[in-house]
Amino acid sequence: MTDRKAQLAANLAQVEERIVSSCVAAGRKREEVTLIVVTKTYPASDVRILHELGVRHVAENRDQDAAPKATACADLSLTWHFVGQLQTNKVRSVTGYADVVQSVDRAKLVTALSAAAVRGERELGCLIQVALDAESGERGERGGVAPDGVEELAAAIGEAPGLRLDGLMTVAPLAGEYAGRQRAAFDRLMEISSRLRAGHPAANMVSAGMSGDLEDAVAAGATHVRVGTAVLGVRPRLG
Ligand SMILES: *Cc1c(COP(=O)(O)O)cnc(C)c1O
Predict the structure, then answer these.
(1) 210 lines ligand 1 (CB under 6 A)
(2) What is the pLDDT of residues 135-170, one digit of tens each?
(3) What separation in Å is there between the alpha carbon of 22 and the centre of ligand 1?
(4) Is residue 238 very low, low, confident or very high in pLDDT (cuts 50, 70, 90)?
(5) Positions modified as N6-(pyridoxal phosphate)lysine (predicted)?
(6) Cα-based distances in Å from 55 to 44, 117, 120, 121, 235
(7) Displacement of CA 172 from its chain's centroid (Å)
(8) The domain 3-226 belongs to what CATH superfamily?
(9) Which atom of ligand 1 is closest in space to residue 229's alpha carbon?
(10) Domain residues of the chain, as ranges?
(11) How many CA atoms are closer than 13 Å to the CA of 186, on its beta-carbon side?
(12) What pTM does this model have?
């Protein structure tokens, strides 16, 4: 085993242990939580090692980095999640490799993703990114729609050819009433998810929790956690 593989294996084992303990504490089954490894800023060779170690879900946040990486790993059976703020001029590229876009936060993006999915003859999973700290009608600093905008976006995705509404995603806010209160933030996301599922029963994915707060996300009921640093190490640059 190479040094890098041994390091990633050890880190993955630690993250797995944290997920298992959180599931036990919450009375949940381990299978209810999917680990997505956020590979942004790390090379395709790491993605390859992660695949060898059993990882099947990876996430990226910048198309410039993700597109070549996905191409280099096209032979691997991986589900690619796009989790970054997405400009409409990148949609066509992202639709070429992403299976799920977790950062859908405006109607214009829905239209663009739908057109690209139809053109590419694919079905694209969509999560609505919720900005828990955004005021009504506004978007979050790091993307996301205010909670009261979820229903309208859900309807748009539900009607858009080529798109499949899979659920919700959030990043715990750094400011506002939820700053430093991850558990409360994720509980709020679960409430919004319950309301969404009443009208869209298949939209049952809840993507929440990162390296620092995955326990809170599992406790609240998240189905997917997105972990970067705890698996790959501290990123060499901001991403
Ligand atoms: C980078 C990133 C993560 C992973 O964050 P870590 O703290 O490194 O685990 C999760 N979600 C999104 C949207 C990200 O951009």
Answers:
(1) yes
(2) 998 888 889 999 999 999 999 999 999 999 999 999
(3) 19
(4) low
(5) 40
(6) 14, 26, 26, 27, 19
(7) 13
(8) Alanine racemase (3.20.20.10)
(9) 8
(10) 3-226
(11) 22
(12) 0.97
